[in-house]
Request: fold
Amino acid sequence: MQEGRARKHIVTALGAAMYALLAGFGHQAERLGTAGESEPLRALLVAAALFVPAYALLAWLLRRGECGVERVQRKTEFHAGRAFLMILACYMPMLLITFPGSFAYDVPFQLEQVFTGKYSSHHPLAHTLLLGGLVKLGHHIGNINLGAALYTAIQMAALAACFALTCASISRQSGARAARWAAAFFALYPLHMMMAVNATKDVLFSGLFVLTLALVREALLVERPGVKLAAGIALCGAGMLLLRNNALYAMAVWLVLLLAMHRRRALRVAAVSLVAVVLCMGANNAMKAATGAAEGDLCEMLSWPIQQLARARNLHGDQLTQEEKQAVDELMPKESWRLYDPTISDPVKFEFDTKAFLSDPGKYAKVYLSVAKKCPKAYWDALLVHTYSFWYPYQRYGVSGYYLQMGISDQFYDWCDFERISSQSLMPRVLASLSWRFGAQGAMQIPGIGILFNMGVIVWVMLYFVIRDAYMGRWKAFACALLPVLLWGTFLLGPVMAGRYVYPFVCCLPVMASYAKHGNTRNKMDEDGHGE
Reply:
Protein backbone atom coordinates (compact mmCIF):
# COMPACT_ATOMS: atom_id res chain seq x y z
CA MET A 1 0.00 0.00 0.00
CA GLN A 2 2.80 2.41 0.96
CA GLU A 3 4.67 1.53 -2.22
CA GLY A 4 1.56 2.27 -4.29
CA ARG A 5 1.13 5.69 -2.70
CA ALA A 6 4.78 6.57 -3.30
CA ARG A 7 4.50 5.51 -6.94
CA LYS A 8 1.42 7.65 -7.45
CA HIS A 9 3.08 10.73 -5.95
CA ILE A 10 6.23 10.24 -8.02
CA VAL A 11 4.32 9.67 -11.27
CA THR A 12 2.09 12.67 -10.64
CA ALA A 13 5.10 14.87 -9.88
CA LEU A 14 6.95 13.76 -12.99
CA GLY A 15 3.87 14.25 -15.14
CA ALA A 16 3.22 17.71 -13.71
CA ALA A 17 6.85 18.70 -14.28
CA MET A 18 6.65 17.53 -17.89
CA TYR A 19 3.47 19.49 -18.60
CA ALA A 20 4.86 22.59 -16.88
CA LEU A 21 8.06 22.47 -18.94
CA LEU A 22 6.19 21.95 -22.19
CA ALA A 23 3.92 24.86 -21.36
CA GLY A 24 6.78 27.16 -20.34
CA PHE A 25 8.88 26.57 -23.44
CA GLY A 26 5.91 26.16 -25.78
CA HIS A 27 4.54 29.58 -24.84
CA GLN A 28 7.84 31.14 -25.88
CA ALA A 29 8.18 29.05 -29.03
CA GLU A 30 4.80 30.16 -30.34
CA ARG A 31 6.04 33.77 -30.25
CA LEU A 32 9.57 33.35 -31.56
CA GLY A 33 8.97 33.51 -35.29
CA THR A 34 11.83 33.86 -37.75
CA ALA A 35 14.14 36.21 -35.88
CA GLY A 36 13.10 36.09 -32.21
CA GLU A 37 15.22 34.63 -29.43
CA SER A 38 14.02 32.46 -26.57
CA GLU A 39 14.69 33.09 -22.89
CA PRO A 40 15.34 29.65 -21.35
CA LEU A 41 15.67 30.97 -17.80
CA ARG A 42 12.33 32.74 -18.02
CA ALA A 43 10.71 29.60 -19.45
CA LEU A 44 12.06 27.58 -16.52
CA LEU A 45 10.68 30.14 -14.05
CA VAL A 46 7.27 29.93 -15.73
CA ALA A 47 7.45 26.13 -15.54
CA ALA A 48 8.32 26.31 -11.84
CA ALA A 49 5.32 28.58 -11.21
CA LEU A 50 3.06 26.19 -13.13
CA PHE A 51 4.24 23.04 -11.34
CA VAL A 52 1.97 23.25 -8.27
CA PRO A 53 -1.28 23.94 -10.16
CA ALA A 54 -0.29 21.32 -12.76
CA TYR A 55 0.31 18.79 -9.98
CA ALA A 56 -3.05 19.54 -8.35
CA LEU A 57 -4.98 19.28 -11.63
CA LEU A 58 -3.19 16.13 -12.75
CA ALA A 59 -3.67 14.46 -9.36
CA TRP A 60 -7.40 15.20 -9.53
CA LEU A 61 -7.66 13.83 -13.07
CA LEU A 62 -5.74 10.69 -12.17
CA ARG A 63 -7.91 10.03 -9.11
CA ARG A 64 -11.01 10.48 -11.25
CA GLY A 65 -9.55 8.20 -13.89
CA GLU A 66 -8.82 5.51 -11.33
CA CYS A 67 -12.51 5.32 -10.46
CA GLY A 68 -13.28 4.09 -13.98
CA VAL A 69 -11.65 0.73 -13.28
CA GLU A 70 -14.77 -0.40 -11.45
CA ARG A 71 -16.76 -0.16 -14.69
CA VAL A 72 -14.48 -2.31 -16.84
CA GLN A 73 -16.52 -5.43 -17.58
CA ARG A 74 -19.98 -5.45 -19.14
CA LYS A 75 -21.79 -8.66 -20.09
CA THR A 76 -23.26 -7.26 -23.30
CA GLU A 77 -22.49 -7.96 -26.94
CA PHE A 78 -20.48 -5.94 -29.41
CA HIS A 79 -20.84 -6.60 -33.14
CA ALA A 80 -17.82 -5.63 -35.22
CA GLY A 81 -19.77 -5.99 -38.48
CA ARG A 82 -22.37 -3.43 -37.41
CA ALA A 83 -19.63 -1.09 -36.24
CA PHE A 84 -17.93 -1.38 -39.64
CA LEU A 85 -21.12 -0.45 -41.50
CA MET A 86 -21.86 2.47 -39.16
CA ILE A 87 -18.33 3.88 -39.43
CA LEU A 88 -18.26 3.51 -43.22
CA ALA A 89 -21.69 5.15 -43.55
CA CYS A 90 -20.44 8.18 -41.60
CA TYR A 91 -17.57 8.60 -44.08
CA MET A 92 -19.74 8.44 -47.23
CA PRO A 93 -20.93 12.09 -47.16
CA MET A 94 -17.30 13.25 -47.27
CA LEU A 95 -16.75 11.18 -50.42
CA LEU A 96 -19.64 13.03 -52.07
CA ILE A 97 -18.20 16.37 -50.95
CA THR A 98 -14.66 15.66 -52.21
CA PHE A 99 -15.37 13.21 -55.08
CA PRO A 100 -13.30 11.41 -56.26
CA GLY A 101 -11.41 12.16 -53.05
CA SER A 102 -8.60 14.42 -51.89
CA PHE A 103 -5.47 13.90 -54.01
CA ALA A 104 -2.89 16.38 -52.78
CA TYR A 105 0.33 16.14 -50.76
CA ASP A 106 2.69 13.62 -52.40
CA VAL A 107 0.19 12.17 -54.89
CA PRO A 108 1.68 13.78 -58.05
CA PHE A 109 5.14 12.46 -57.18
CA GLN A 110 3.82 8.96 -56.49
CA LEU A 111 1.76 8.88 -59.68
CA GLU A 112 4.80 10.02 -61.67
CA GLN A 113 6.68 6.95 -60.46
CA VAL A 114 3.95 4.56 -61.58
CA PHE A 115 3.29 6.20 -64.95
CA THR A 116 6.97 6.68 -65.86
CA GLY A 117 8.28 3.48 -64.27
CA LYS A 118 10.99 5.37 -62.37
CA TYR A 119 10.42 4.31 -58.78
CA SER A 120 11.92 5.60 -55.57
CA SER A 121 11.65 4.42 -51.98
CA HIS A 122 11.25 8.06 -50.90
CA HIS A 123 7.55 7.25 -50.48
CA PRO A 124 6.39 3.80 -49.25
CA LEU A 125 6.37 1.54 -52.31
CA ALA A 126 3.34 -0.38 -51.05
CA HIS A 127 1.24 2.79 -51.00
CA THR A 128 2.69 4.11 -54.27
CA LEU A 129 1.86 0.87 -56.09
CA LEU A 130 -1.66 0.67 -54.67
CA LEU A 131 -2.51 4.31 -55.34
CA GLY A 132 -0.79 4.54 -58.70
CA GLY A 133 -2.01 1.15 -59.86
CA LEU A 134 -5.68 2.03 -59.33
CA VAL A 135 -5.33 5.49 -60.87
CA LYS A 136 -3.49 3.95 -63.85
CA LEU A 137 -6.30 1.41 -64.18
CA GLY A 138 -8.77 4.29 -64.46
CA HIS A 139 -6.55 5.92 -67.08
CA HIS A 140 -6.46 2.73 -69.17
CA ILE A 141 -10.25 2.36 -69.17
CA GLY A 142 -10.65 6.00 -70.18
CA ASN A 143 -11.73 7.58 -66.88
CA ILE A 144 -8.89 8.46 -64.55
CA ASN A 145 -11.34 9.82 -61.96
CA LEU A 146 -12.95 6.38 -61.75
CA GLY A 147 -9.61 4.87 -60.77
CA ALA A 148 -9.10 7.63 -58.20
CA ALA A 149 -12.58 7.03 -56.75
CA LEU A 150 -11.88 3.30 -56.55
CA TYR A 151 -8.76 4.00 -54.49
CA THR A 152 -10.73 6.28 -52.16
CA ALA A 153 -13.46 3.67 -51.70
CA ILE A 154 -10.93 0.94 -50.88
CA GLN A 155 -9.13 3.21 -48.44
CA MET A 156 -12.39 4.17 -46.69
CA ALA A 157 -13.43 0.52 -46.35
CA ALA A 158 -9.98 -0.52 -45.11
CA LEU A 159 -9.92 2.26 -42.52
CA ALA A 160 -13.43 1.43 -41.29
CA ALA A 161 -12.47 -2.26 -41.06
CA CYS A 162 -9.35 -1.46 -39.02
CA PHE A 163 -11.42 0.66 -36.65
CA ALA A 164 -14.16 -1.97 -36.30
CA LEU A 165 -11.60 -4.69 -35.53
CA THR A 166 -9.91 -2.34 -33.05
CA CYS A 167 -13.26 -1.88 -31.31
CA ALA A 168 -13.71 -5.65 -31.23
CA SER A 169 -10.36 -5.98 -29.49
CA ILE A 170 -11.33 -3.26 -27.02
CA SER A 171 -14.53 -5.21 -26.34
CA ARG A 172 -12.57 -8.32 -25.48
CA GLN A 173 -10.31 -6.32 -23.19
CA SER A 174 -12.67 -3.84 -21.56
CA GLY A 175 -16.23 -4.79 -22.42
CA ALA A 176 -18.79 -3.81 -25.04
CA ARG A 177 -19.53 -0.42 -23.51
CA ALA A 178 -15.96 0.78 -24.05
CA ALA A 179 -16.05 -0.64 -27.59
CA ARG A 180 -19.23 1.27 -28.41
CA TRP A 181 -17.72 4.52 -27.19
CA ALA A 182 -14.67 3.83 -29.35
CA ALA A 183 -16.85 3.07 -32.39
CA ALA A 184 -18.73 6.34 -31.88
CA PHE A 185 -15.43 8.21 -31.75
CA PHE A 186 -14.14 6.56 -34.93
CA ALA A 187 -17.43 7.27 -36.71
CA LEU A 188 -18.21 10.82 -35.59
CA TYR A 189 -14.95 12.64 -34.87
CA PRO A 190 -14.67 14.85 -38.00
CA LEU A 191 -10.96 14.31 -38.59
CA HIS A 192 -11.64 10.63 -39.33
CA MET A 193 -14.18 11.58 -41.99
CA MET A 194 -11.76 13.98 -43.66
CA MET A 195 -8.76 11.68 -43.48
CA ALA A 196 -10.74 8.74 -44.86
CA VAL A 197 -10.89 10.41 -48.29
CA ASN A 198 -7.32 11.76 -48.29
CA ALA A 199 -4.99 9.78 -50.55
CA THR A 200 -2.01 9.89 -48.24
CA LYS A 201 -0.10 7.00 -46.68
CA ASP A 202 -0.91 8.38 -43.21
CA VAL A 203 -4.50 7.12 -43.43
CA LEU A 204 -3.90 3.41 -43.99
CA PHE A 205 -0.87 3.56 -41.72
CA SER A 206 -2.92 5.03 -38.87
CA GLY A 207 -5.66 2.41 -39.22
CA LEU A 208 -3.19 -0.48 -39.17
CA PHE A 209 -1.17 1.14 -36.38
CA VAL A 210 -4.08 1.43 -33.96
CA LEU A 211 -5.26 -2.10 -34.78
CA THR A 212 -1.74 -3.43 -34.15
CA LEU A 213 -1.60 -1.51 -30.87
CA ALA A 214 -4.94 -2.95 -29.73
CA LEU A 215 -3.97 -6.52 -30.64
CA VAL A 216 -0.56 -6.22 -28.97
CA ARG A 217 -2.15 -4.99 -25.75
CA GLU A 218 -4.68 -7.81 -25.91
CA ALA A 219 -1.87 -10.34 -26.40
CA LEU A 220 -0.01 -9.02 -23.37
CA LEU A 221 -3.13 -9.25 -21.20
CA VAL A 222 -3.91 -12.88 -21.99
CA GLU A 223 -1.70 -15.64 -20.69
CA ARG A 224 -1.32 -17.42 -24.02
CA PRO A 225 -2.09 -15.46 -27.24
CA GLY A 226 -3.89 -17.68 -29.73
CA VAL A 227 -2.90 -18.37 -33.32
CA LYS A 228 -5.35 -15.87 -34.83
CA LEU A 229 -4.31 -13.15 -32.44
CA ALA A 230 -0.63 -13.75 -33.22
CA ALA A 231 -1.34 -13.82 -36.96
CA GLY A 232 -3.30 -10.59 -36.65
CA ILE A 233 -0.37 -8.84 -34.96
CA ALA A 234 2.11 -10.17 -37.54
CA LEU A 235 0.05 -9.20 -40.59
CA CYS A 236 -1.26 -5.84 -39.33
CA GLY A 237 2.15 -4.97 -37.94
CA ALA A 238 3.86 -5.78 -41.23
CA GLY A 239 1.33 -3.70 -43.17
CA MET A 240 1.77 -0.81 -40.77
CA LEU A 241 5.57 -0.95 -41.02
CA LEU A 242 5.42 -1.03 -44.83
CA LEU A 243 3.69 2.33 -44.82
CA ARG A 244 6.15 4.26 -42.64
CA ASN A 245 9.89 3.76 -42.11
CA ASN A 246 9.86 5.71 -38.85
CA ALA A 247 7.40 3.16 -37.44
CA LEU A 248 10.12 0.54 -37.92
CA TYR A 249 12.54 2.60 -35.82
CA ALA A 250 9.92 3.10 -33.11
CA MET A 251 9.09 -0.63 -33.12
CA ALA A 252 12.75 -1.61 -32.73
CA VAL A 253 13.24 0.59 -29.66
CA TRP A 254 9.87 -0.51 -28.25
CA LEU A 255 10.77 -4.20 -28.46
CA VAL A 256 13.91 -3.58 -26.42
CA LEU A 257 11.92 -1.68 -23.77
CA LEU A 258 9.16 -4.32 -23.76
CA LEU A 259 11.59 -7.15 -23.08
CA ALA A 260 13.41 -5.10 -20.45
CA MET A 261 10.14 -4.43 -18.60
CA HIS A 262 8.43 -7.83 -18.87
CA ARG A 263 11.11 -10.30 -19.94
CA ARG A 264 9.73 -13.83 -20.34
CA ARG A 265 6.10 -12.72 -20.06
CA ALA A 266 6.55 -10.64 -23.24
CA LEU A 267 8.57 -13.15 -25.26
CA ARG A 268 5.60 -14.33 -27.33
CA VAL A 269 4.49 -10.81 -28.17
CA ALA A 270 8.06 -9.78 -28.96
CA ALA A 271 8.51 -12.82 -31.20
CA VAL A 272 5.32 -12.08 -33.14
CA SER A 273 6.34 -8.42 -33.48
CA LEU A 274 9.69 -9.54 -34.87
CA VAL A 275 7.83 -11.65 -37.41
CA ALA A 276 6.02 -8.47 -38.49
CA VAL A 277 9.39 -6.74 -38.92
CA VAL A 278 10.77 -9.63 -40.98
CA LEU A 279 7.64 -9.75 -43.18
CA CYS A 280 7.87 -6.01 -43.74
CA MET A 281 11.53 -6.09 -44.70
CA GLY A 282 11.01 -9.08 -46.99
CA ALA A 283 8.04 -7.51 -48.78
CA ASN A 284 9.81 -4.17 -49.11
CA ASN A 285 12.95 -5.74 -50.57
CA ALA A 286 10.82 -7.72 -53.02
CA MET A 287 9.04 -4.56 -54.19
CA LYS A 288 12.35 -2.72 -54.54
CA ALA A 289 13.76 -5.56 -56.64
CA ALA A 290 10.64 -5.77 -58.81
CA THR A 291 10.46 -2.03 -59.48
CA GLY A 292 14.16 -1.21 -59.45
CA ALA A 293 13.37 1.58 -56.99
CA ALA A 294 16.13 4.02 -56.13
CA GLU A 295 16.86 4.83 -52.51
CA GLY A 296 15.24 7.91 -50.97
CA ASP A 297 17.18 11.09 -50.28
CA LEU A 298 19.08 11.13 -46.98
CA CYS A 299 18.08 14.77 -46.43
CA GLU A 300 14.66 13.54 -45.24
CA MET A 301 16.39 12.52 -42.00
CA LEU A 302 18.21 15.82 -41.58
CA SER A 303 15.39 18.29 -40.95
CA TRP A 304 16.74 19.40 -37.57
CA PRO A 305 20.35 20.08 -38.68
CA ILE A 306 19.12 21.78 -41.86
CA GLN A 307 16.83 24.10 -39.90
CA GLN A 308 19.48 24.84 -37.29
CA LEU A 309 22.22 25.67 -39.80
CA ALA A 310 19.85 27.79 -41.88
CA ARG A 311 18.71 29.78 -38.85
CA ALA A 312 22.28 30.35 -37.67
CA ARG A 313 23.39 31.39 -41.19
CA ASN A 314 20.49 33.83 -41.49
CA LEU A 315 20.68 35.44 -38.05
CA HIS A 316 24.32 35.06 -37.02
CA GLY A 317 26.29 35.00 -40.25
CA ASP A 318 28.65 37.65 -38.86
CA GLN A 319 29.76 35.20 -36.15
CA LEU A 320 30.77 32.47 -38.59
CA THR A 321 34.18 32.09 -40.18
CA GLN A 322 34.58 32.22 -43.94
CA GLU A 323 35.15 28.45 -43.99
CA GLU A 324 31.94 27.82 -42.05
CA LYS A 325 29.94 30.09 -44.35
CA GLN A 326 31.41 28.36 -47.39
CA ALA A 327 30.53 24.93 -46.00
CA VAL A 328 26.92 25.97 -45.32
CA ASP A 329 26.72 27.49 -48.82
CA GLU A 330 27.94 24.20 -50.29
CA LEU A 331 25.16 22.29 -48.52
CA MET A 332 22.58 24.96 -49.34
CA PRO A 333 23.63 26.22 -52.79
CA LYS A 334 22.48 29.52 -54.32
CA GLU A 335 22.03 30.87 -50.79
CA SER A 336 18.96 28.68 -50.32
CA TRP A 337 19.42 29.14 -46.58
CA ARG A 338 17.65 32.44 -47.16
CA LEU A 339 14.48 30.40 -47.79
CA TYR A 340 14.46 29.40 -44.13
CA ASP A 341 10.93 28.97 -42.76
CA PRO A 342 10.98 28.26 -39.00
CA THR A 343 8.01 25.87 -39.06
CA ILE A 344 8.85 23.71 -42.08
CA SER A 345 12.16 22.44 -43.41
CA ASP A 346 10.96 21.78 -46.98
CA PRO A 347 11.99 25.12 -48.60
CA VAL A 348 15.64 24.65 -47.61
CA LYS A 349 15.57 20.85 -47.58
CA PHE A 350 14.47 20.68 -51.23
CA GLU A 351 17.62 22.61 -52.19
CA PHE A 352 19.93 20.72 -49.82
CA ASP A 353 22.89 19.14 -51.67
CA THR A 354 22.95 15.60 -50.31
CA LYS A 355 25.75 14.57 -52.67
CA ALA A 356 27.99 17.29 -51.28
CA PHE A 357 27.22 16.16 -47.74
CA LEU A 358 27.95 12.50 -48.52
CA SER A 359 31.21 13.42 -50.25
CA ASP A 360 32.70 14.42 -46.89
CA PRO A 361 30.26 13.90 -43.98
CA GLY A 362 33.04 14.27 -41.41
CA LYS A 363 33.86 17.77 -42.63
CA TYR A 364 30.26 18.94 -42.49
CA ALA A 365 29.66 17.31 -39.11
CA LYS A 366 32.57 19.33 -37.72
CA VAL A 367 31.13 22.51 -39.22
CA TYR A 368 27.74 21.71 -37.69
CA LEU A 369 29.34 21.33 -34.25
CA SER A 370 31.53 24.40 -34.57
CA VAL A 371 28.53 26.55 -35.53
CA ALA A 372 26.63 25.03 -32.60
CA LYS A 373 29.31 26.29 -30.19
CA LYS A 374 28.97 29.82 -31.55
CA CYS A 375 25.18 29.88 -31.96
CA PRO A 376 23.70 27.50 -29.37
CA LYS A 377 20.59 29.62 -28.91
CA ALA A 378 19.92 29.68 -32.66
CA TYR A 379 20.04 25.88 -32.69
CA TRP A 380 17.76 25.66 -29.65
CA ASP A 381 15.31 28.19 -31.06
CA ALA A 382 15.22 26.43 -34.44
CA LEU A 383 14.29 23.23 -32.62
CA LEU A 384 11.59 24.92 -30.53
CA VAL A 385 9.86 26.72 -33.40
CA HIS A 386 10.07 23.70 -35.68
CA THR A 387 8.40 21.29 -33.23
CA TYR A 388 6.33 23.23 -30.68
CA SER A 389 2.97 22.70 -32.37
CA PHE A 390 3.38 18.96 -31.73
CA TRP A 391 3.85 19.29 -27.97
CA TYR A 392 2.20 22.57 -26.96
CA PRO A 393 -1.52 23.49 -27.20
CA TYR A 394 -1.00 26.49 -29.46
CA GLN A 395 -3.47 29.38 -29.53
CA ARG A 396 -3.20 29.80 -33.30
CA TYR A 397 -2.14 27.43 -36.04
CA GLY A 398 1.25 28.92 -36.89
CA VAL A 399 2.58 26.25 -39.26
CA SER A 400 3.30 27.03 -42.92
CA GLY A 401 0.91 25.13 -45.15
CA TYR A 402 -2.49 23.60 -44.62
CA TYR A 403 -3.45 21.74 -41.46
CA LEU A 404 -5.16 19.21 -43.72
CA GLN A 405 -4.93 19.69 -47.47
CA MET A 406 -8.19 18.87 -49.22
CA GLY A 407 -9.32 18.66 -52.83
CA ILE A 408 -7.07 18.05 -55.86
CA SER A 409 -3.54 19.34 -56.22
CA ASP A 410 -2.83 20.99 -59.59
CA GLN A 411 0.92 21.28 -59.01
CA PHE A 412 3.86 19.02 -59.86
CA TYR A 413 2.22 17.43 -62.92
CA ASP A 414 4.79 18.69 -65.45
CA TRP A 415 5.47 15.06 -66.37
CA CYS A 416 1.81 14.43 -67.25
CA ASP A 417 0.59 14.91 -70.85
CA PHE A 418 -2.85 13.35 -70.39
CA GLU A 419 -6.00 13.83 -68.34
CA ARG A 420 -5.37 14.49 -64.65
CA ILE A 421 -7.52 13.72 -61.64
CA SER A 422 -10.08 16.52 -61.37
CA SER A 423 -12.53 17.49 -58.67
CA GLN A 424 -16.16 16.53 -59.38
CA SER A 425 -17.56 17.43 -55.99
CA LEU A 426 -21.30 17.12 -55.62
CA MET A 427 -21.13 19.92 -53.04
CA PRO A 428 -18.38 22.33 -54.19
CA ARG A 429 -19.43 25.11 -51.83
CA VAL A 430 -19.21 22.77 -48.84
CA LEU A 431 -15.76 21.61 -50.02
CA ALA A 432 -14.55 25.20 -50.38
CA SER A 433 -15.89 26.07 -46.92
CA LEU A 434 -14.23 23.05 -45.31
CA SER A 435 -10.94 23.78 -47.06
CA TRP A 436 -10.97 27.30 -45.65
CA ARG A 437 -12.58 26.80 -42.23
CA PHE A 438 -10.96 23.49 -41.35
CA GLY A 439 -8.24 22.51 -43.79
CA ALA A 440 -6.25 25.74 -43.70
CA GLN A 441 -6.07 26.33 -39.95
CA GLY A 442 -7.49 23.24 -38.28
CA ALA A 443 -10.63 25.18 -37.27
CA MET A 444 -8.53 27.37 -34.97
CA GLN A 445 -10.51 30.43 -36.08
CA ILE A 446 -13.65 28.88 -34.54
CA PRO A 447 -13.67 29.46 -30.76
CA GLY A 448 -13.91 26.23 -28.78
CA ILE A 449 -14.07 23.96 -31.85
CA GLY A 450 -10.43 24.33 -32.82
CA ILE A 451 -9.29 22.82 -29.52
CA LEU A 452 -10.65 19.44 -30.68
CA PHE A 453 -8.13 19.37 -33.54
CA ASN A 454 -5.25 21.15 -31.82
CA MET A 455 -2.18 18.94 -32.30
CA GLY A 456 -0.68 19.91 -28.97
CA VAL A 457 -3.91 19.09 -27.12
CA ILE A 458 -4.15 15.69 -28.80
CA VAL A 459 -0.57 14.83 -27.79
CA TRP A 460 -1.16 16.05 -24.23
CA VAL A 461 -4.22 13.80 -23.95
CA MET A 462 -2.18 10.86 -25.24
CA LEU A 463 0.56 11.56 -22.70
CA TYR A 464 -2.06 11.72 -19.94
CA PHE A 465 -3.15 8.15 -20.69
CA VAL A 466 0.49 7.00 -20.52
CA ILE A 467 0.88 8.73 -17.15
CA ARG A 468 -2.40 7.21 -15.95
CA ASP A 469 -1.20 3.68 -16.69
CA ALA A 470 1.99 4.28 -14.68
CA TYR A 471 -0.01 5.92 -11.86
CA MET A 472 -2.23 2.86 -11.57
CA GLY A 473 0.63 0.39 -11.90
CA ARG A 474 -0.84 -1.07 -15.09
CA TRP A 475 2.59 -1.89 -16.48
CA LYS A 476 1.52 -4.01 -19.42
CA ALA A 477 -0.80 -1.28 -20.69
CA PHE A 478 1.98 1.22 -19.97
CA ALA A 479 4.42 -0.81 -22.05
CA CYS A 480 1.97 -0.80 -24.96
CA ALA A 481 1.38 2.94 -24.59
CA LEU A 482 5.11 3.53 -25.09
CA LEU A 483 4.81 2.45 -28.74
CA PRO A 484 2.78 5.52 -29.85
CA VAL A 485 4.98 7.73 -27.67
CA LEU A 486 8.09 6.43 -29.44
CA LEU A 487 6.39 6.94 -32.80
CA TRP A 488 5.59 10.50 -31.74
CA GLY A 489 9.29 10.98 -31.03
CA THR A 490 10.17 10.07 -34.61
CA PHE A 491 7.61 12.57 -35.95
CA LEU A 492 9.33 15.32 -33.96
CA LEU A 493 12.34 14.74 -36.22
CA GLY A 494 10.24 15.27 -39.33
CA PRO A 495 10.05 18.19 -41.80
CA VAL A 496 6.85 19.78 -40.49
CA MET A 497 4.07 19.38 -37.94
CA ALA A 498 0.70 19.00 -39.65
CA GLY A 499 -2.72 17.49 -39.05
CA ARG A 500 -2.01 14.31 -40.98
CA TYR A 501 1.06 13.63 -38.84
CA VAL A 502 -0.93 13.73 -35.62
CA TYR A 503 -3.57 11.39 -37.03
CA PRO A 504 -2.03 8.11 -35.75
CA PHE A 505 -2.20 9.46 -32.20
CA VAL A 506 -5.83 10.52 -32.62
CA CYS A 507 -6.61 6.94 -33.68
CA CYS A 508 -4.78 5.49 -30.65
CA LEU A 509 -6.75 7.47 -28.05
CA PRO A 510 -9.68 5.00 -27.68
CA VAL A 511 -7.30 2.08 -27.11
CA MET A 512 -5.20 4.00 -24.62
CA ALA A 513 -8.30 5.35 -22.85
CA SER A 514 -9.95 1.96 -22.32
CA TYR A 515 -9.39 0.06 -19.07
CA ALA A 516 -8.26 -3.54 -19.01
CA LYS A 517 -6.79 -5.60 -16.19
CA HIS A 518 -4.57 -8.65 -16.45
CA GLY A 519 -6.75 -11.72 -16.35
CA ASN A 520 -9.91 -9.89 -17.45
CA THR A 521 -9.28 -10.44 -21.14
CA ARG A 522 -10.67 -13.62 -22.61
CA ASN A 523 -8.87 -14.96 -25.65
CA LYS A 524 -11.84 -15.56 -27.97
CA MET A 525 -10.06 -14.76 -31.20
CA ASP A 526 -9.28 -18.40 -31.82
CA GLU A 527 -12.96 -19.21 -31.33
CA ASP A 528 -14.68 -16.76 -33.64
CA GLY A 529 -12.29 -13.96 -34.58
CA HIS A 530 -14.64 -11.15 -33.52
CA GLY A 531 -15.77 -9.30 -30.43
CA GLU A 532 -18.07 -10.45 -27.73
The chain has a mean pLDDT of 92.
